[in-house]
Design brief:
This protein is mainly beta. The protein is built from 1 helix and 8 strands. The protein has one domain (10-114): Thrombin, subunit H (Beta Barrel), CATH 2.40.10. It has one helix at 99-112, and strands at 10-13, 18-21, 27-35, 38-43, 52-58, 68-81, 84-96, 113-114.
């Protein structure tokens, strides 16, 4: 059994939210797991590792009085989903986010994060 290396509590993400490449406007994936320092995306294409991505989330009015959350994150790992051979799982660590946006991201964690998700203990963000 692999040793748990996650430092912060992680939650399944119960709200369908797409994550976009801010520069290209292309969908990178959708959130399936969230912690206060990073997140897990379900993606249709593999993600390059150790690349700094400028990402964007479109916000609902119940989260903030602005439409977008723009931040920088690194893809720490990416692999095929073991249960779906056409989907990839990609773990990201947030590198740069403004303090105001961090409050919104933490609100997302609290509001839409679920502790009762069914994830394998080996499926963690910092690999």
């Amino acid at each position: 059994m692999k040793k748990e290396r996650r430092r912060l509590r992680r939650r399944g993400f119960s709200y369908y939210m797409r994550v976009f490449n801010h520069r290209t406007g292309k969908v990178v994936g959708h959130l399936s797991d969230i912690s206060q320092e990073g997140f897990l995306l379900d993606c249709q294409e593999p993600i390059l590792l150790n690349v700094e991505y400028q990402l964007r989330l479109e916000l609902s009015p119940d989260l903030a009085d602005k439409n977008l959350l723009v931040f920088t994150a690194h893809c720490k790992w990416c692999r095929l989903d073991p249960t779906d051979s056409v989907t990839y799982k990609a773990g990201f660590q947030i590198v740069n986010m403004s303090p105001d946006d961090r409050l919104i991201f933490n609100r997302m964690f609290e509001r839409y994060g679920s502790d009762d998700h069914m994830k394998s203990s080996s499926d963690y963000l910092w690999k």
